[in-house]
Amino acid sequence: MLKILGKAPSINVRKVLWTCAELQLPFEREDWGAGFRPTSAPEFLALNPNGMVPVIRDGDFVLWESNSIIRYLASRYGGEHLYPAEPQARARVDQWMDWQATDLNRSWSYAFLALVRQSQQHRDRSEIEASCANWAKNVGILNRQLEAAGGFVAGERFTLADIPIGLSVNRWFGTPIQARPDFPAVSAYFERLAGRPGYADYCRNGTA
């Protein structure tokens, strides 16, 4: 059986759990990370030298990096409805997954750590304001894409890209940002995701 190493509250672990729900793929999960077994342990570093969750073990195959994991699972376990085989359709999905992992993630990092995690290393008010502004700029990009695409981020149908982006939208709404801009297409999109397997357990589950 597929084994997932990583604590359930982690946003990157939740990408994998939500993907498994969409694929109806059974798994076992082990708690690793802050508050649980340390990822600095030699046995964990032997699997992922970066010391970060998630890691999967699929038989003898070991893989880390959350977006790589969910691409693998969709390709391995009949997920063409999530991750199309046709090159241009797949590239569109990859484009938005990569955008989430780079531009979008980088924009919310400082603000999230300051406002939700209450990190003492992230108390600079100007940095918080700059992060919130950049985050809003990127959510605005997503809002325009959703208006144009027809319902989901890569087009009219739910795809693998909607899992990491849906989790990021959950984080946007779960962070106490002052004067949060209104993005109607993003709000409607987040409600539209509610009918998906795994959404309640792994996305809108009270964890940002």
Walk me through the structure.
It comes from Trinickia terrae. This is Glutathione S-transferase family protein. By secondary structure, the protein is an alpha+beta fold. The chain folds into 2 domains: 2-76, Glutaredoxin, CATH 3.40.30; 87-201, Glutathione S-transferase Yfyf (Class Pi), Chain A, domain 2 (Up-down Bundle). The chain is built from 8 helices and 4 strands. The chain has helices at 11-23, 42-45, 66-76, 87-115, 125-149, 162-174, 184-192, 199-203; strands spanning 2-5, 27-30, 55-58, 61-64. The chain has a 4-stranded mixed sheet, with helices on one face. A hairpin with a 2-residue loop joins strand 3 and strand 4. The radius of gyration is 17 Å and the shape is globular.
Helices and strands, with pairings:
Blueprint: E1 2-5, H1 11-23, E2 27-30, H2 42-45, E3 55-58, E4 61-64, H3 66-76, H4 87-115, H5 125-149, H6 162-174, H7 184-192, H8 199-203
Parallel strand pairs: 1-2
Antiparallel strand pairs: 1-3, 3-4
InterPro entries: Glutathione-S-Trfase_C-like (IPR010987), Glutathione-S-Trfase_C_sf (IPR036282), Glutathione_S-Trfase (IPR040079), Glutathione_S-Trfase_N (IPR004045), GST_C (IPR004046), Thioredoxin-like_sf (IPR036249)
Family: Belongs to the GST superfamily.
GO molecular function: transferase activity
Describe the biggest sheet?
4 strands, mixed
How many distinct beta strands?
4
CATH topology of the largest domain: Glutathione S-transferase Yfyf (Class Pi), Chain A, domain 2
Which CATH class of the largest domain applies here?
A: Mainly Alpha
- Count, helices: 8
The amount of beta strand, in percent, is 5-15%
Helix content: 40-55%
The oligomerization state is single chain
Strand order of the largest sheet: 2-1-3-4
Structural class: alpha+beta
Number of domains: 2
